[in-house]
Amino acid sequence: MKKSTTLTTYRFSFGPWNISEGADPFGPDSRAVFPHEKKFALYRPLGFEGVQFHDDDVVPGLDGLTAAQIQRQAARIKAILASEGLTPEFVAPRLWFAEQTIDGAYTANSAADRAYAWDRTKKCIDIARAIDCKAIVLWLSREGTYIREAKNAKLAYDRLLESLNQMLAYDRTIEVWIEPKPNEPTDQAYVPTVGHAIALAYASKAPKRVKGLIESAHALLAGLDPSDEMAFAIAHDKLGSVHLNDQNGLKYDEDKNFGSANLRSAFNQVRVLEENGYCRRGEFVGLDVKTMRSQRGCPVVEHLKNSRAMFLHLLDKVRALDQKLVQQYRDARDYEALELYVLKHLLAVK
Q1: How much is the mean pLDDT over the chain?
Q2: What's the rounded Cα separation, in Å, for the pair 311 and 177?
């Protein structure tokens, strides 16, 4: 099949936390620490251009700093990014570590805790401005409950919308990307799917600036197909970014290498992105993957290289699909033949 001469060029991003020391809830570090700021020099050689940030990845210990100190540190990181030829994709307020966020942030029952969340969010937006970043990501990690009676759910959703509107008013140009997750660390989240995130977007005072960020594993944890979630967001022009990884069933968030657990699911995620023109406006393909705790080395980066290579390999598979044959099978409603064709195509079997 002849390939188009106007193929999309994909750009890739990851967060510095993806190069880790191997600690998990059940064990300590298993690798030596690799200095945080030395990670930026690894991006370009690995084929990555975008950097995902939490606010304290840019400014460590920001709760104890003055506004001037925050701006100086942000300016320093901006200079490092420029020297390495990197683009900050987004900055996310880390609203799940502080004592004030034990019961949630924007939905906390305590007014003082909600005030802390808003102050931290303003600092996060200021940091994004300082490093020339256009997007804030909201992973609403503790915006939920361990037991349903702990919070007034209607009031919690009202507070989430109010907080979202405050962000949009605080900065009239920034976009807010909501990253839904159905559970972990809370038992039940208030915004578990991209459909919930998009509903909040439409209810907000600036719907065009509110989008979703879809992580493969999070969709799987909700019992949904990541490619369908991506298609839904694209249909509403609200796919801000993706975090590609994989997941073995309905357990904790594993962040496995992209395509490592379900290759066909990964193929369909790439297919939906490619067929619908994702990345043509400069969007990034983000990875959020953890290497195996048993892996030796410092720094360990094979999981990033392998996941990016798998995306590009599956992209070639998508572009080599015989679309006329696919349409013939669809027209004939012969989905058995279509499935066999896809499986053979993935396996390179004639």
Answers
A1: 96
A2: 23
Joined tokens for residue 77: 């990181």
CB atoms closer than 10 angstroms to residue 9: 7
What the block records as the tokens of 116 is 């802390």
Alpha carbons 200 and 205: distance in angstroms, whole number: 10
Q: Among residues 24, 29, 36, 54, which one is catalytic?
A: 54
- Whether 57 sits among the annotated catalytic residues: the reply is yes
| Residue written as token pair 């033949």 | 337
Cis bond upstream, residue 299 (ω within 30): yes
Instruction: Determine whether 197 is exposed, middle or buried from the number of CB atoms within 10 Å of its CB (0-12, 13-18, 19+).
Output: buried
Contact status, residue 55 vs residue 75, Cβ threshold 8 Å: no
Indicate the helix (H) or strand (E) that contains 213.
Answer: strand 210-215
Sketch out the chain's domains with CATH numbers: 11-301 (3.20.20.150)
pLDDT tens sequence across 209-235? 999 999 999 999 999 999 999 999 999
Are 78 and 40 within 8 A, CB to CB?
A: no
Active site annotation includes 237: no
> At a CB cut-off of 8 Å and minimum separation 6, what does 241 contact?
13, 89, 90, 135, 137, 177, 213, 214, 283, 284, 286
CB atoms within 10 A of CB 276: 14
pLDDT at position 10 is 97
* CA dist., res. 242 & res. 81, Å (int): 22
- Residue 318 corresponds to which tokens in the numbers above? 């998508």
What is the SS3 assignment for 231-263? HHHHHCCCEEEEEECECCCCCCCCCECCCCCCH
Check: CB of residue 291 under 8 Å from CB of residue 31.
no
Enumerate residues 6+ apart whose C-beta is below 8 A from 124.
55, 91, 92, 93, 136
CA distances from 141 to 19, 104, 245, 251, 344 (A): 21, 8, 18, 16, 40
pTM, whole model, 2 decimals?
A: 0.96
Confidence band of 251 (pLDDT split at 50, 70, 90)? confident
CB contact at 8 A, 304 and 289? yes
55, 56, 57, 126: which one is catalytic?
57
Spatial distance between the Cα atoms of 249 and 227, rounded to a whole number of angstroms: 16
